[in-house]
Amino acid sequence: MSELSVAVVGAGIGGLTTALALARQGHAITLIERRTGFSEVGAGLQLSPNASRILIDLGLGAALRRAATEPARVVVRSIRSGRQIGQVALGPFMRSRFGAPYWVIHRADLQTILLDAVRSTPTIRLLIGRKVEEVHDGPFTASVTMTTQGGARETLSVDAVIGADGVWSKVRAALGETASPAFRGYVAWRATLDRSAAPAPLAGDETGLWLGPRGHVVHYPVASGRLVNVVAIERAPEPVEGWAAPGDGSELQSHYASAAPALQKLLAQPSQWLRWSLFDLPATTLVKGRIALLGDAAHPVLPFLAQGAALAIEDAATLALLMTDAGRIPQAFATYAEKRLDRVRKVQGEARQNGRVYHMGGLMAFGRNQVMRHLGPEGMTERYSWLYDFRPTA
């Protein structure tokens, strides 16, 4: 294996993991981030075994165990009645079945763990406050042109460029992709609250999933169990302005006014909400020559399967195994696309389908509930064995 020079654009979860995984393989990484700070607000994420085992293999297990929580189960309830519909086995069952934990964690905690690891790795150079203007592919090298906040312009020539710059990726255009992510008719309200403020039935070490025809709600403990992360989904005809916008909690409470009392009480607790519009973009082109995309830059996915971060982590690990020689980067990237496309398309499709299933009403909801009860907790988990059993290979 020869040392490669690689530019990674975007220092979110996917970009940080990619930089770390490539550096572990002995490559020299320049990690480029437009922001000048790394604060993350009001968002948790789920690290299923397909992602957690990769992060553990990168040496982050001890830090993650301190920051994450490991719910024993998902309890599925009806929004209106509060009655339990079914369960999904997590905790010990996940560990024994897939050999890795199913963790939930505050996004800021995961980002801090990854960022600390990146900053302590001498072969990673982190450039913040840099806006990528152009990305070009060449026969022997690729280039990234960026500007500083002061307007200074710099062009970097490298063996490969990896775009991990999110849903509205600048690097995606360098692949000739002209389609824009599409708004899918949902807005997510996100908040955290102190665990002691959550209603007692909803403050345990489990994930709650509430289903109804007008939306659904997910909550789980984060920040070593000190906080509860809450995500409430509502159907919406138009996206919110900008990337995220503050939300008036009274509007959300009005939307869920007919919900079970415990859920109403939970939604009344947060003092601050942020709203995100939900977009996806069917995965088509992941690579071109010496340029590759990963995570939301490559395949934005709806959050209804909790796999956005996990897919980015999978992408990072797969790329790190394939990138071994400067002369064979185009072939390695072509193999990466071949390995990833069918899987990410399947995840995107399953996430869209979950959006429909979660919001069923009437007889269809009755049938859904019967299926969940028939499968039981472990059967519900086994439905996604193809997802959780993933291991990156070259």
TrEMBL record:
UniProt keyword Oxidoreductase, yes or no: yes
Protein keywords: FAD, Flavoprotein, Monooxygenase, Oxidoreductase
Domain FAD-binding stretches: 4-347
UniProt cross-references to Pfam families, sorted A to Z: FAD_binding_3
Organism: Microvirga terricola
Gene3D superfamilies: FAD/NAD(P)-binding domain
Record-given protein name: FAD-dependent oxidoreductase
Essential cofactor(s): FAD
